[in-house]
Amino acid sequence: MRKMKISTKGRYGLRAMIDLAVNSNGGCASLAGISERQDLSLNYLESIFSYLKRAGLVIGIAGAQGGYMLAKPADEITLYEIMTVLEGDMSVYDKFGPTTKIRSFLNKNVWDVIDKNVNEVLTGTTMADVIKNIENNRLSEDCSAL
Amino acid sequence: MKLSTKSRYALEGMLYMAVYGKDRLLTVKEIAAGTAVSPAYMEQIFFTLKKAGLVSTVRGAKGGFTLGYPENEITVGRIIRAIDGDLVPVSCVANLSSCKSKARSNCISRYVWIRISDAIAKTADKQTLEMLKDQFMKESDGAENEDIH
């Protein structure tokens, strides 16, 4: 049965992008490093980063100290950009079948409303927000460990 | 990130019941015809809804389906969960142990999935069949017993 789920590409791709944003510190991060921190295979990361590169979300840097960096500052990349590259259309429904009154009513009053709420989160959250949230969590964990 | 067709048809079927099944019980056949879904498929869906207690059957000559709870207690979210099992975009949101990654304990992306999940639930858990029925009747302007298509 098909359920409402984000694909493997979407899940692993976002994790890799966030890891890159956290660990590149203005420079770049190697796929080997991302692979180790995120428990994702190097092969998989290579294919996903060539895709992200073609989509213009990351830039590849050649050389011994090379790797990848975000194509734009973290506060200019929204989750919406990343997720539409990785997942395509983020709507919770496909338009299908003959349109009955009930179906078009529910499209307008339920599914489009959900899509709007999801889009607000995606367009309103940048990579910088995500990084900040991770740092805040680490800080509160460090404090609770004292 | 698409909802199953099954869960969407389930909501259509239940809204159809709420709107058109006020004075008499409806059969799956009627509900299927009214929603333009194949009767066999709607039958499967109502079997699942019945197991979840969201609808029940009344036997007899005038038998058919009736809602298992008051209209204001049946939310969109409840119907989708009865059909799909959950209403989250990534299963770790509902159950962290479903994630087998070594990076699970300090996951950097779960926060995003939780935010998306909350955005979905905000609407799905608020909207009840009663609200949708009232809105539907209002929009169809009292002509709800005539042309349903």
TrEMBL record, chain A:
Keywords: DNA-binding. It holds the Pfam family Rrf2. GO terms for cellular component: cytosol. InterPro entries: Tscrpt_reg_Rrf2 (IPR000944), WH-like_DNA-bd_sf (IPR036388), WH_DNA-bd_sf (IPR036390). One of its GO terms (molecular function) is DNA-binding transcription factor activity. Gene3D superfamilies: Winged helix-like DNA-binding domain superfamily/Winged helix DNA-binding domain. Signal peptide: none annotated. The keyword Transcription regulation does not apply. PANTHER family: HTH-TYPE TRANSCRIPTIONAL REGULATOR ISCR, WINGED HELIX-TURN-HELIX TRANSCRIPTIONAL REGULATOR, RRF2 FAMILY. This is HTH-type transcriptional regulator CymR. It comes from Caproiciproducens galactitolivorans. The lineage of its organism: Bacteria, Bacillati, Bacillota, Clostridia, Eubacteriales. The gene is cymR_2.
From TrEMBL, chain B:
Keywords: DNA-binding. The keyword DNA-binding applies. InterPro entries: TR_Rrf2-type_CS, Tscrpt_reg_Rrf2, WH-like_DNA-bd_sf, WH_DNA-bd_sf. It holds the Pfam family Rrf2. GO terms for molecular function: DNA binding; DNA-binding transcription factor activity. Transmembrane segments: none annotated. GO terms for cellular component: cytosol. SUPFAM superfamilies: Winged helix' DNA-binding domain. It comes from the Bacteria. This is HTH-type transcriptional regulator CymR. It comes from Caproiciproducens galactitolivorans. The lineage of its organism: Bacteria, Bacillati, Bacillota, Clostridia, Eubacteriales.
